[in-house]
Amino acid sequence: SMDSTKHDEL
Amino acid sequence: MNVFRILGDVSHLLAMIILLLKIWRSKSCAGISGKSQILFALVFTTRYLDLLTNFISIYNTVMKIIFLACSYTTVYMIYGKYRNTFDSENDSFRLEFLLVPVTGLSFLENYNFTPLEILWTFSIYLESVAILPQLFMISKTGEAETITTHYLFFLGLYRTLYLANWIWRYHTESFYDQIAVVSGVVQTIFYCDFFYLYVTKVLKGKKLSLP
């Protein structure tokens, strides 16, 4: 699953 | 947050600090590709626009700001402060060969057709190929200073650790970011040849020089 509005990696 | 992710971020930061220290202490950018450094500055700029729209964590915000600062300082060192030591003759990779396909692909293959999301995708694709001007420069001159190879090693290590991070996250959180994973695998492959030379030459005390 991938919430594309929230990229939590650098 | 897992150990691979933290170590990956630390490696990434270490790579950038090693490069800055090399330039600062030798007062020279010899052997460094300014084009690769411009691409990395572009990568961080287009990826971290969410600093303005989306808060994730203190760690995330602070690291993004540090990465941006390191990246722009490096570009300034190469094209500003120490530009007379910059070997522009051998930094002759044609950036349009990377920028045109990367731009096209980020419009075609993304999660959301919105400006911020397309720029994020652009940054992921661009990062996977941003080191190519530097590797091209080394293959052209046939050598690299040992400190430059340490920089490349930590940059490659960062990507390799992120692969482990994604495998971990897939199993523990069912997290799977296809665009980042595919680009990350491509990016890591570019370092394989260099890793081989690093282990067989640099770690045995020899200078990295190509036949």
Show unreliable segments of chain B: none
By DSSP, the count of extended strands of chain B is 2
Ends apart, CA distance between termini of chain A: 18 Å
> What Rg of chain B, in angstroms, do the CA atoms define?
17 Å
Helix and strand string of chain B, N-terminal first? HHHHHHEHHE
What value does the Rg of chain A take, in angstroms?
6 Å
> How would you write the strand order of the largest sheet of chain B?
1-2
> How confident overall, as mean pLDDT of chain B?
96
Helix content of chain B: over 70%
> Which oligomerization state do the chains in this entry correspond to?
heterodimer
Sheet with most strands of chain B: 2 strands, antiparallel
Structural class of chain A: little secondary structure
What gap, in angstroms, lies between the N and C termini of chain B? 43 Å
In a nutshell, what does this entry contain?
The complex is a heterodimer of chains A (10) and B (211). Helices cover 0% and strands 0% of the residues of chain A.
Could you please describe the fold and organization of this structure?
The complex is a heterodimer of chains A (10) and B (211). Chain A is largely without helices or strands and 10 residues long. The radius of gyration of chain A is 6 Å and the shape is flat. The N and C termini of chain A lie far apart (18 Å). The model of chain B has no long low-confidence stretch (mean pLDDT 96). A two-stranded antiparallel sheet of chain B has the order 1-2. Chain B is built from eight helices and two strands; from the N terminus they run ααααααβααβ. Chain B is globular and about 45 Å long. The chains are: A little secondary structure (10), B mainly alpha (211). The interface between A and B is medium-sized, with 9 and 24 residues.
